[in-house]
Amino acid sequence: MGSDFNNVKEHTNIYLQRLICIILLIAALPFLLSAGGGSEKKWVVVIDAGHGGKDPGALGAISKEKNINLAIALKAGSYIEQNLKNVEVLYTRKTDVFVGLYERADFANKNKADLFISIHANAISKSTIKGTETWIMGLAQDDQNLEVAMKENEVILLEDDFSTKYENFDPKSPESYIMFTVMQNTYREQSLYLASNIQNQFRNRAGRVDLGVKQAGFLVLYMTSMPSVLIETGFLTNSEEEKYLNTKDGQDYLASAIYRATRDYINEIDKKSNISRSADDYTTPVHASVVQESASSGNQVRFMVQIATSGSRKQVTPVNFNGLEDIVEIESDGQFKYASGSFEDYAMASEHRKKIGSYYPDSFVIAVKNNKILPLQEALNSK
Fold first, then answer.
1. Per-residue pLDDT averaged across 259-274, rounded?
2. pLDDT per position as a tens digit, 63-96
3. Which of 148-157, 252-261, 294-303, 332-341 comes out lowest in average pLDDT?
4. N or C: lower Cβ tally within 10 Å for the chain?
5. Cα(116)–Cα(241) distance, integer angstroms
6. What is the DSSP letter of 356?
7. Chain centroid to CA 271: how far?
8. Phi, then psi, of 184 in degrees rounded to 5
9. How far is CA 5 from CA 11, 13, 16, 85, 363, in A?
10. Spatial separation of the C-alpha atoms in residues 69 and 123, rounded to whole Å
11. Number of Cα atoms under 13 Å in the Cβ half of residue 313
């Protein structure tokens, strides 16, 4: 009898041990699957509440821009955090503190953000104007666009040693904005797509007046290394709109619209690409390294098509350059310039520029020797 009891007890212990192993295995299964390389890294979205601290931003009759920006930014970030589990949200500020433009962009760059969304409110002398607009980095198309960028960039005057930090850039001088005529944002297409999503949501979700997607030389967008937009949620100089911007419902609707636009953007990009959104997971294609060798070796002049210029280094991968696989990075005058193709003949390079013109309408032919850009006429004369 005792022997039978011991046998039963032994079998019971074995059964329990196996049961515990099965339970532990089931519990660990999600972690084992994620460790197997099948999961994507999280998207990183930086929400930037414009102005703050000693910089109030635009002033309305009853409110300051900095407070509205922060309220909408925190709500938009919260919506994203609650509903998009594959997204990590970071904030350039979560309280009423002053943060310089360089520090905002640097924060996004250091955290390898996938999106940078800067939230602002507008002001203008004509009080009847109202509506939302979303800006991307680019050359201002008219004086009014330039005026908006100049107003936002003037915040650098509140920073210590701004002249050195921004290399003598004068936000009040139109001449300072000439540099944007030779700058092509690497992430223009992605930024434009996100900006269009945001305006669509403002119009359809929040019922706001849609003033469209615009472009101008905003320093904070210029210094970021990812798709970036600057949102103007409304005009504090319009009494009706200022009241709306200060209501809980108004802020909720605008924040929800930003969340929905971000969600749609991420879903669409993820659907088009099966690779991780983190630049660290990208590998440089063989074509790029081969072209780089031919462009930089020997004393031969090569003609290439410059498609982008950036203040910070970009990852040289097809996904960052509309699928082009022959991208070369050239460091020149403190800037990183990106070019496609490598030709002995100027005419061939010019033909290549036409082929990629739909993606990069502002591209142009350059001459490269020993990985340095030469004056084009000098290169042509040497041929």
1. 84
2. 999 999 999 999 999 999 999 999 999 999 999 9
3. 294-303
4. N
5. 25
6. T
7. 19
8. -120, 120
9. 10, 12, 16, 52, 86
10. 13
11. 8
Is the pTM higher than 0.70? The answer reads: no
CB 381 within 8 A of CB 335: no
Tens of pLDDT, residue by residue over 268-315, are 888 766 443 343 343 333 233 333 334 444 478 888 888 888 777 888
Query: Domains along the chain?
Result: 43-272 (3.40.630.40), 282-382 (no CATH)
If you ran DSSP here, which 8-state letter would residue 35 be given? I
| CA distances for 120 relative to 5, 50, 172, 206, angstroms | 77, 5, 20, 16
Residue in this structure with the two tokens 């309220």, named with its chain if needed: 71
- 3-class secondary structure, 22: helix
CA distance to 106, 145, 183, 218, per residue, from 168 (Å):
19, 22, 18, 16
pLDDT at position 383: 62
Helices 248-272 & 188-204 angle (0-180, nearest 10): 140
Cβ contacts of residue 48 below 8 Å, gap of 6+? 73, 91, 92, 93, 104, 108, 116, 117, 118, 119, 220
Residue 345 CA to residue 330 CA, distance in Å, equals 20
What is the SS3 assignment for 108? helix
Mean pLDDT of the chain: 80
SS3 2: helix
DSSP helix/strand/coil, 359: coil
Q: Residues 6 or more apart from 361 whose CB is under 8 A from it? A: none
Backbone phi, then psi, for 348, in 5-degree steps?
Answer: -65, -40
Q: Residue 285 has what pLDDT?
A: 34
